[in-house]
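Bench notes, afternoon.
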Amino acid sequence: MQTIATALLAALVLSGLIYLMQALCVLHQTRRKQKHTASLPPVSILKPLCGQVDGLAENLESFARLRYPEFEIIFGLKSAGDEAFAAARDFQARHPELPIKIVIDERQFGFNPKVNNLVPMMVHARHDLLLISDDNVRVPPDYLRDTVAEMTGGTGLVYNLICGLGGERLGAILENLHLNSFIAGSVCFLHTMLRHPCVIGKSMLLRRSTLQRIGGLQHVRNVLAEDYLLGRHYQKQGYRVALCSTPVYNINLTWPLRSFWRRHVRWARMRFWIGTYRYAAEWLGNPLAIALAWSLVEPGWLSAGVFAGLAAAKSGADWLLARRLSPAVAFRHFLLMPVKDLLIALVWFAPFTSRTIRWREKKLVVGLGSQLRPHREHSSAVLPPHTSLPVLR
């Protein structure tokens, strides 16, 4: 037991150093001076919609307030019966001054529902610059201008920092805490220190012409991690992948704890299958879980004190770092940071129990490279091997 305790103590020290480096990377990224450019080409904003999400109407309104000379907004749905259809129509009616299209296309191009939604919107887009933006994000007025400024020569894709805001139920609070701590720190650390872009698809800017040149969405239509793998594909093709420091605000209000758990089980299984050795190192990004394990192996006042002190210090430090993303984050929510960290430690074991995920009420099985195939309950959903995507203009 003494050997295990010593190993855990060493892991705790290493985890603390990693946390410090992540914090420094967040500070570096948020202190970057935003580039300014005279070139502001027109942009097609693609917003896939599916069901009602927290704050949808206000999320959409934030895009009507963008300070940018020319852009269009394209909404994509699989059915006119979708709950989000009414929100899209209302937004269109409120803003006749904006070029807005609503595209309804029920075709299935692969097992990834987001890609199925994106392809028809891309076909209807007028401009070469495409901004893919999720329906649960809210943005500041200069968001589009700042993001486009990162699209310099040789850049293939631009993604943004994410800040979780809101929180009325426990699941939503925990989701925002994770976005504002582990996710923000990991994204900045991987991008800044390791030159390894960890693209999260809530906001992605790319050129349609470049995307078509590297194969379009064909190679990500049947994977779970389409955003991350798209960023890696751009990098392997020799293009720069840029991280814009202007955050998008992921609005989470009414999520129950069950929704938080399901999402992170899905993400855990995804991360395991796209990088097993990197996934094994994720525990080093959770110092509180290591401190708890050490206190269980080596019980006593010292280990208990370290755990309690670390819980308090990390809650405060995470709050200060989250304020770099938005002053609107609530301090009282960060008192639940230890609960969130320990739940995430439990979620880490999810890939070893099953390969099944639930996404938009469908069961899928995830495999190497996050490749998806239908669960045996939906075996009839197999797509013909010759199914191909439309050619983007």
